[in-house]
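Extended Data, record 6-phospho-beta-glucosidase
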Amino acid sequence: MSLPKDFLWGGATAANQCEGGYLEGKKGLGTVDVIPWGEHRRAVMQGQLHYNELPKDSYFPSHEAIDMYHNYKEDIKMFAEMGFKCYRFSFAWSRIFPTGEEAEPNEEGLAFYEAFINELLRYNIEPVVTICHFDVPLALEQKYGSWRSRKVIDAYVRYCDVIFRRFKGKVKYWMTFNEINMLMHLPFMGAGIMFREGEDEVQVKYQAAHNELVASALATKLAHEIDPNNKVGCMLAAGQFYPYSCNPEDVFAAMEKDKGNYFFIDVQSRGAYPNYAKRFLERNQILIHMEPEDERILRENTVDYIAFSYYTSRLTSANTDVGEKTSGNVIAGIRNPHLKASEWGWQIDPLGLRITMNSLYDRYQKPLFIVENGLGAVDILTEDGTVEDDYRIAYLEAHIEAMTEAVEIDGVDLMGYTSWGCIDLVSASTGEMKKRYGFIYVDKDNEGNGTMKRYKKKSFEWYKKVIKNNGLN
């Protein structure tokens, strides 16, 4: 057995991490455009430090990123050379609706994405579009407090209506929100939520979550009505939680952590709030404002597939004092003594991908799509213009092998695999350029200096062979 012949091999990026051109073509500011690099980044992402209070000399990496806005033809040509079957990218919402509430969309923004998509299709690369990837028009945050308000649902649905109609027949695969559960961990980055003094932050986060879930369901409904061929997915920052020991309390703690992670996808895939979530809200006296039609909207408009990112597994315990802590994809945990870690402390666990795939498929029985997986590392450009990134090849090779075993041995239904940051881009968590993921090196540093020239790494030719052989070797 092998992967399906129509398996979607490719790579993934996000507009705010690679596009640049942050005010070109009549684009408006997005929430990500006010998140700085450096010591204040995490506080702003958490909604604890207001972006208006930042030092005047703050550097905002998204403003230029790797300038794909002006270089996309060159970049897509390199993706095609690797043999990409698909490319996952995002639209910058504020490029299409600069404030989120214009009477008409910004034609320059739509024309840019149309040209971008046409370039992909010229190389027979299937576009996979994330509708909202940590990128809310800043004006909606300033006017309504972002997703805490149902007004943003209306703005989002109008935005979806425009892009579904404009790109009908050209884009088949959509995702409503990137890593929707990140709202709970980095509220401003994930959903544009900036907290006000004295308010109940948990209440605000769950109200925003509900509004996003309703918006996702309405977008799914609209996508299917406009084009029955559309496939709409949700997207989760995934990674199984392991218990620190076989102590039943640790096992239970891991189960609880997993449920907290699954909450959004349970609603998007199953169409209703799970009982554990209802009990949690009751116990914590969290009262979510719902409109009479919300439950029906959620129930009738579930997603077609489950997309997720996987970088690492997580380890947890009922005892908060146990074990050495380590980093992860924003969600920190206990260091697993059985695993090695990346330079940023993200533990490397290929079997964890297979475990996560089994858990998700057993839970939802819908096709899965791995839309982010990769290794962030410090790459050294050699004098002959390449990067000897054998460490990246080893990471990806082990994860692709585990992924293939989940399909061939365990029977998991998997649509495709897009490695994260197929071209070097700005790190979402740290705002760095030196934390590189790509098969293509971009000459730029953390401070924004560099030529922007692109170079093929050793992993470029390796991934080209993987795609050509459909993962067989």
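Summary. The domain at 8-468 is CATH 3.20.20.80 (TIM Barrel).
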